[in-house]
Amino acid sequence: MSNITEVYVEEYIRDLLPEEQGILKEIEEDAIKNHIPIVHKEVAALLKVIAKASNAKKILEVGTAIGYSTILLCQAAGKGGHVTTIERDNERVQEAIKNIDRVNLSKNIQIIEGDAQEVLRFLDQQYDLIFLDGAKGHYKDMLMNCINLLKNGGVLISDNILFKGMVANDELVIRRKKTIVNRMRDYLSYICNHSQLDTSIIPIGDGVAISFRRLEE
């Protein structure tokens, strides 16, 4: 239970959605077995829909983990799609490389090992879609670089923005998580009122924010 929505709603939605198949299903099961965080089933479905609906071909991901969402996004991008993904944990990078090789997408995915706040400063491409799923307490620190890398008309997806419901309810806040919660509240207020973005908050998974970079007139 994520504290984002009622248990029965969460379970109903997850039961409706088809299971992943083949290697992707194996990666998902491995993540669950080894307590490695990956996107929730309903968030995975949303990522695929947005990537396809926006015809995203150049995608940037912050937070690779073992490559689960990386692969989902690359597959959704289809022919000609390319994902650049950033991960600072070397062990996770090695696992991601293996998983990406297993689905034959190594030519379509570039993994950059390093701290995202540093890496983002040196990227010089424009992306159709950016998936922000890195260190939760540093989303706002990374935002301006993300906006600069996002093309006009592009989409920024921020995951885990309600953080087990704590962001929306003080009674749920664990003391050691208070700094992260306060920073995430600040981030949400900022993107919801940003002059370059139109943002919607969606209470699925651990909370997702969808931001559209406005077209310049």
UniProtKB/TrEMBL annotation:
Residues annotated for Mg(2+) binding in this entry: 133, 159-160
GO biological process terms held by the UniProt record: tRNA methylation
Organism: Anaerovirgula multivorans
Binding sites annotated in the UniProt record for S-adenosyl-L-methionine: 39, 69, 87, 115-116, 133
Name used for this protein in its record: tRNA 5-hydroxyuridine methyltransferase
Molecular function (Gene Ontology), one example: magnesium ion binding
The EC number(s) this enzyme carries: 2.1.1.-
Family statement drawn from the similarity comment of this UniProt entry: Belongs to the class I-like SAM-binding methyltransferase superfamily. Cation-dependent O-methyltransferase family.
CDD domains per the UniProt record, alphabetical: AdoMet_MTases (cd02440)
Subunit structure: Homodimer.
Function as written in the Swiss-Prot or TrEMBL entry: Catalyzes the methylation of 5-hydroxyuridine (ho5U) to form 5-methoxyuridine (mo5U) at position 34 in tRNAs.
Catalytic activity: 5-hydroxyuridine(34) in tRNA + S-adenosyl-L-methionine = 5-methoxyuridine(34) in tRNA + S-adenosyl-L-homocysteine + H(+)
UniProt-listed Pfam families: Methyltransf_3
Gene it is expressed from: trmR
Keywords from the UniProt entry: Magnesium, Metal-binding, Methyltransferase, S-adenosyl-L-methionine, Transferase, tRNA processing
